[in-house]
Amino acid sequence: MSKDKEIDRSEVVTARAIELNNYDEEPIHAPDSIQPHGMVFALEEPQLKIILVSNNSLEFLGLHPRELLSKKLKDLFGSEQIKAIETYLAEDFDSISPRKISLHIHNKKAIFDGIIHRSNGIVILELEPTQSSEEGSFFRFHDLVKGSMNKMQNASNLSELCQVVVQEIRKISGFDRVMAYRFDSEGVGKVIAEERSDKLISYLGLHFPAIDLPKEARRLFTLNWLRFIPDVNAQPVELVSTPNSVISQPLDLSFSVLRSVSPCHVEYLNNMGVAASMSISLIKEKKLWGLIACHHSSPKYVSYEMRTACEFLGQAMSLELAAKEENEDIDYKMKLTSIQAKLVEAIAHTNNFAEGLVQNPSNLLDLVGARGAAVYLDGNLALIGQTPQETEIQELVNWIATHSSAETFSHSTSEQVPVQNDIVFQTDSLPQIYPAAEQFKDVASGVLALTIAKLHKNYLLWFRPEIIQTVKWGGNPDQPVGVKREDSLHLSPRKSFELWQETVRLKSLPWKQWEIKAALELRNSIAGMALRKADELSKINAELERSNAELDAFTYIASHDLKEPLRGIHNYSSFLLEDYAEVLDEDGIAKLKTLVQLTQRMENLIESLLYYSRLGRAELLLQPVDLDDLVKNHVLDVLAITQHESGVDIRIPRPLPTINCDRILVRELFSNLISNAIKYNDKSEKWVEIGFLDEESPTSLMSKEERRSQPCLIFYVKDNGIGIRQKHQESIFRIFKRLHPRNKYGGGTGAGLTIAKKIVERHDGKIWVKSTYGKGSTFYFTLSS
């Protein structure tokens, strides 16, 4: 790479300007090579045939790769070893399963640490030579970690825990430097604990840009607890595979212990003066919280057992992270809880939450450590302390309301803060994402906003002023890491890691997790009180309450009194078909099949009814439906089977149209109306007519205003039955309303017309009846969906 003075600066890419995707393009998970301190086999199951081997087998096994390829592992290992490996593979083991493997090479016994895992259906076996046998390994491990665990348990806070862990890992591993990193929400790492040799300069408190650990590397650290590089400059060993191998592309070594090192990372470590490294992942809630980084100035091998002990301490620390973070600033958290209780009490004694919040301004500000606050309720603003102007706040609220996506609704460069989308917005650098905020940076470089009611744009906002800060970096984050050459980008890590201080502007102090939590709990309390008040107001609408109670009662009956016997009928009918089909005649089998179909259909209708009665706002399955086919082939055919009456004249004057509707519900609608027309008819010659009226038809029984606001076809089901008295024509749509004894006109639950009305309303339609007692009825309905 050319010297800086020879480079066109417009072509230089800095660490903070570069897109992480440029680094992520390097396939570090599949380098097609391994580190030379061990060897690797790729095996094809079930025979464990060797289809790939590292090109250093001669060094470890005395056999050239070509002598091993296409052989079976049993040709190399003893039967006891093979059986143990097959047992591991048959079990549901973790991503990596280690074990001791011994081989006799040139009449000498060689012991290896064997690591087994799978990659895309391929078994990978890695071997590292070791001097220790499996005997006594538990006690050696216990001796390594016992004292360390006791010290970790006695750590009173997060800072002390981190310091204990780095001290103990350095004691076990012997590295020159051991550091604990913590990542913020943007991936910037900060050294929060360090144990080092006196000859080294301290990195404690330094920040390292996110590009130092690209996204793909973070993924691998999340998958693997430990990464070990004993010699940064060791020559990688290539992987050799059989011709026409089932491995069609570079082998995925994401879980590999021996995976070779990215050239860019090698250069990075060399620039840092590191010849050997070991990194242990710190995982919290399945996310990479930080790293324990171990560095040595010369090549250094650490045995697999010692690495396992260090990994164990890292896992133990990961389990402690949540508890230790919870204990941070415990006195401050208790103070916030007390302030929150005072605010809730004040709100409870006022007509609206805004009045209660502003009664004692200091409480509202102290809840989150803010300098200013704004309560935005139904377009009205109440301001407390140091805030932007009213117009600036209104514009900010509008911006927040339209930028409530996952990417923008949590923007912080400090801590990893759990947020709920569309509820809380927080940032300590508002001018960076909302440039207009630079005009009021002195009062609102940081914003914490709660959505109380998004529909009405009711928000609670807190503000923090700009605080000019000095950030210490491990090297200049703006130092070039890449140079554009024609259409490519040549990446190269920073050369220097010496202390570099940066003055940061347009930022406030960051919002802490417990401050955001306190704000969210206040919001939940406000929501709870609002719900209680809404419950009180709901008593005014007594008729709606009664209707809902009736619907709930029907739902209960449908779900319990109908479904249980229905399932019994369905099951016993199925049993009869299965067990007695040979003794039944063809007509009996057909009837049983019909019975099964009918019970299944009724089960489906009940489930649909339950769904729509409880979830009235659920989406309809709208689709073009040929009503002529639906009525003739799906409604009337079923009614012909279920209705005992015969000789009913079904009239359809003209083919019914195709409309956009929910097929299942509209089938139920026609079925209910037609079956009622047949059932409630005492004439010797019965007829039912099914049709529709043109929307401009003069016989339409809707007013001009209704037709104008609801331009749709009017369908009808007409009969010459018993008719309905005028005084009952409104009440018949009430649930369980019956005009006749249950043993008359075939019985029934009285829910049919209620269901029909519900279906019509779900399609934004209307249903009504015109009837002459003793002569017949006509049910009209519209479907607007």
Overall 3D shape: flat
Number of helices: 22
Low-confidence stretches: 1-22, 405-410, 413-420, 696-700, 703-710
* Strand percent estimate: 15-25%
Cα-atom radius of gyration: 38 Å
For the secondary structure, the number of strands is 31
Which percent bin holds the helix content?
A: 25-40%
Quick one: biggest sheet?
7 strands, antiparallel
Distance between the termini: 67 Å
Mean pLDDT: 80
Arrangement of strands in the largest sheet: 2-12-4-3-7-6-5
Structural class, please?
A: alpha+beta
Any overview of this molecule?
- This protein has 785 residues and is of the alpha+beta class.
- Helices cover 38% and strands 24% of the residues.
- It has a seven-stranded antiparallel beta sheet with strand order 2-12-4-3-7-6-5.
- Strand 6 and strand 7 (122-130) form a beta hairpin.
- The chain is flat and about 110 Å long.
